[in-house]
């Protein structure tokens, strides 16, 4: 196997598919200060891992993904993808990546099958290979019945599935998914997760960005929480919850605005309290006894709920902000 | 089938073939994709490239031409009005086709359909997207130019055998203009104030009128003639007319060719940089 590039190394020698150190991206800005989208992040993703970049909009997730996808030159730090440098071997790297972009870029005027074939042709594959691969991938994406339907006639979930299928046309070493389920209804999200989970089972390395905590918990072996262009925490979903949260959370609902008056009383009961617009979150090891204590303290919540901690709580702890706002 | 869906980990060599990798393969594949997108429009384009010349040749060449020719053809260099305007009509058609393929159609791939971004997620680079796009536009111009030439033949307005050179001349001019419109398409965030319409109204249409298409340049007052010199269409008209009916000194032929070539080369270089800025940021 050969590539156009000089510094390419065989994949067998590469244990970590992504190695980034102090990776930075700064955009020049005509009207004033340059924008520091990524302010120095370190990553190491081994083969076969499902790795997540988690963070709110504007955290620098997509910019990082674009640098990994070799379509955005870094402005600082080091980056190795599949053992190669994107600045030198972009063609050889992209040849072995599958990319599912956040904004759809399927050709709406072509059929599902045609979209897969055209895309496969960009990699230099023969017509015969592309045709066979298209049929195989349509089946994987559960779109065989829609093979000759125009993309413009598909639902959002189907389009996203087709985009994922398209990203697999070159049997990539690594699939990059930028917010794969944003904007989909719950059922479509579950169908999509199921497909991604199958890929993961087959050992395909997945890199995904999301601002949905449940998505990260479902799919990621390991993740980093990104905020303001920096990594603020790293670990498996369970590790992060254990490290940054208590086991359970008591949610107390109030009429919006009223929650502030009871913050002090609640703080006396547990280690930590977060204030949301209509709620107080009480972090505790034992939810039921905390609810008991709340009633005894006479805090007049309109309702109370005990639940397990999630990554959402981790994020709240780390940044003091909610993820989706 | 094996590979991503059955193999672990997904690697080439088991089921996936080793692709041929060379810069030209990728450029040709971009061209191929654009040809495929054009396919549904092929017959309507072909119909247009036949109907438009038919209408223009009948109305201007035959209709208006009978009036013009009655007053003598010395001013036209001794050829009939039909023969005089035929090369210019072919070039004007190429200019319009070049504009339409490089304006909204190209902008669409950056802005609405975003398919240019799909291309560059693969080994294809921004420069290859440009190259393939220009190859596609050249193909399109050669095809519709040839159709136009055949219609001119039917009307006996295609000149001698050298008249066939009108097709590559018009294509060269069209590609030159297209590279510059592609620069605009790759640079615009929005088409909000209607930039493309401005180019059409204040660029393409006046160029068609003041490039010695319908009357010789010396019929214009001297101070208006420089308008033609800066029009790529005028240089193409002069060359195409020379190919069909002759009469141009060799040094002028050389000069027109140089101008058209410079437009292509510089336009291409600027477009390359703009495509890169649009697709790699």
Terminus-to-terminus distance of chain B: 37 Å
Helical content of chain B stands at 55-70%
Biggest sheet architecture of chain A: 6 strands, mixed
Instruction: Give the radius of gyration of chain A.
Output: 23 Å
Strand content of chain B: under 5%
Q: How many separate domains make up the residues of chain B?
A: 1
**Residue-averaged pLDDT of chain B, rounded?**
89
Q: Order of SSEs of chain B, N→C?
A: HHHHHHHHHHH
What order do the helices and strands of chain A follow?
A: EEEHEHEHHHEHEHEEHEHEEHEH
Average pLDDT score of chain A = 90
CATH classification class of the largest domain in chain A: Alpha Beta
How would a crystallographer describe the biggest sheet of chain B? none
Helix content of chain A: 25-40%
Give me the count of strands of chain A: 13
Total separate domains of chain A = 3
End-to-end gap of chain A: 48 Å
From the helix content, strand content and strand pairing of chain B, which structural class follows?
mainly alpha
Overall geometry of chain A: globular
Strand content of chain A: 25-35%
Number of strands of chain B: 0
Radius of gyration over C-alpha positions of chain B, nearest whole angstrom: 22 Å
Task: Please explain how this structure is put together.
The complex is a heterodimer of chains A (325) and B (281). Chain A is α/β, with parallel strands linked by helices. Helix content of chain A is 34%, strand content 26%. Chain A has helices at residues 61-68, 86-94, 112-122, 127-140, 156-167, 186-201, 213-219, 237-244, 263-267, 287-297, 311-319; strands spanning 16-27, 35-46, 50-54, 76-81, 97-100, 174-178, 205-210, 222-227, 230-235, 248-253, 272-276, 279-284, 303-308. In chain A, the strands form 3 sheets. A 6-stranded mixed beta sheet of chain A has the order 5-6-7-3-8-9, with helices on both faces. Chain A has a 4-stranded antiparallel beta sheet with strand order 11-12-10-13. Chain A has a 3-stranded antiparallel beta sheet with strand order 2-1-4, covered by helices on one side. Chain A is globular and about 75 Å long. The relative contact order of chain A is 0.13. With 281 residues, chain B is mainly α. Chain B has one domain (23-279). Helix content of chain B is 69%, strand content 0%. Chain B has 11 helices and no strands. Chain B has helices at 23-38, 42-70, 81-102, 104-111, 115-119, 126-154, 166-187, 195-209, 225-229, 232-245, 250-279. The chains are: A alpha/beta (325), B mainly alpha (281). Chains A and B meet through helix 2, strand 5, helix 3 and helix 4 of A and helix 1 and helix 5 of B.
């Amino acid at each position: 196997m050969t590539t156009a590039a000089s510094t390419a190394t065989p994949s067998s020698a590469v244990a970590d598919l992504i190695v980034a150190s102090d990776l930075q991206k700064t955009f020049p800005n005509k009207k004033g200060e340059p924008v520091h989208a990524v302010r120095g992040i370190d990553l190491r993703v081994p083969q076969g891992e499902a790795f997540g970049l988690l963070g709110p909009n504007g955290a620098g997730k997509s910019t990082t993904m674009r640098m990994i996808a070799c379509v955005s030159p870094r402005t600082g730090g080091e980056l190795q993808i599949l053992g190669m440098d994107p600045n030198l071997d972009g063609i050889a790297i992209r040849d072995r990546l599958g990319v599912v972009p956040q904004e759809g870029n399927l050709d709406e005027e072509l059929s599902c099958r045609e979209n897969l074939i055209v895309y496969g042709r960009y990699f230099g594959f023969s017509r015969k290979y592309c045709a066979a691969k298209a049929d195989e991938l349509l089946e994987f994406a559960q779109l065989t019945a829609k093979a000759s339907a125009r993309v413009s006639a598909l639902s959002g979930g189907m389009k996203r599935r087709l985009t994922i299928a398209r990203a697999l046309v070159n049997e990539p070493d690594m699939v990059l998914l930028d917010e794969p389920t944003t904007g989909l209804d719950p059922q479509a999200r579950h169908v999509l997760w199921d497909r991604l989970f199958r890929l993961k089972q087959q050992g395909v390395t997945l890199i995904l960005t999301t601002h949905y905590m449940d998505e990260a918990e479902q799919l990621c072996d390991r993740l980093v929480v990104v905020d303001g262009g920096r990594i603020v925490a790293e670990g498996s979903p369970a590790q992060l919850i254990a490290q940054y949260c208590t086991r359970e959370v008591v949610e107390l609902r109030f009429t919006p605005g009223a929650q502030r008056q009871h913050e002090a009383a609640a703080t006396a009961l547990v280690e930590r309290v977060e204030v949301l617009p209509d709620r107080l979150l009480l972090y505790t090891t034992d939810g039921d006894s905390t609810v008991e204590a709340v009633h005894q303290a006479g805090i007049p919540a309109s309702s109370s709920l005990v639940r397990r901690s999630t990554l959402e709580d981790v994020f709240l702890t780390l940044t003091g902000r909610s993820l989706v706002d | 089938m094996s590979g991503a869906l059955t193999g672990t980990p997904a690697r080439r060599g088991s089921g996936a073939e080793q692709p041929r990798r060379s810069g030209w393969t990728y450029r040709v594949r971009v061209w191929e994709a654009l040809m495929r997108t054009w396919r549904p429009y092929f017959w309507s384009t072909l119909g247009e490239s036949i109907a438009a010349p038919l209408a223009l040749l009948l109305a201007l060449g035959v209709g208006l031409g009978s009036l013009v020719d009655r007053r003598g053809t010395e001013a036209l260099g001794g050829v009939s009005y039909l023969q005089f305007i035929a090369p210019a009509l072919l070039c004007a058609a190429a200019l319009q086709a070049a504009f339409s393929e490089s304006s909204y159609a190209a902008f669409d791939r950056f802005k609405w359909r975003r398919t240019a971004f799909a291309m560059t997620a693969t080994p294809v680079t921004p420069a290859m997207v440009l190259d393939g796009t220009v190859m596609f536009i050249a193909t399109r111009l050669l095809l519709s130019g040839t159709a136009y030439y055949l219609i001119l033949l039917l009307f006996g307005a295609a000149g001698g055998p050298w008249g066939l050179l009108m097709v590559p001349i018009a294509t060269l001019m069209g590609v030159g203009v297209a590279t510059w419109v592609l620069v605009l398409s790759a640079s615009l965030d929005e088409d909000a104030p209607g930039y493309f319409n401005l180019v059409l109204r204040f660029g393409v249409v006046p160029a068609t009128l003041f490039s010695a298409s319908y009357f010789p340049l010396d019929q214009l007052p001297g101070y208006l003639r420089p308008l033609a010199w800066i029009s790529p269409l005028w240089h193409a008209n002069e060359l195409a007319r020379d190919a069909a009916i002759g009469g141009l000194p060799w040094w002028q032929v050389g000069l027109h060719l140089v101008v058209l070539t410079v437009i292509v080369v510089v336009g291409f270089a600027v477009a390359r940089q703009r495509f890169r800025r649009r697709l790699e940021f």
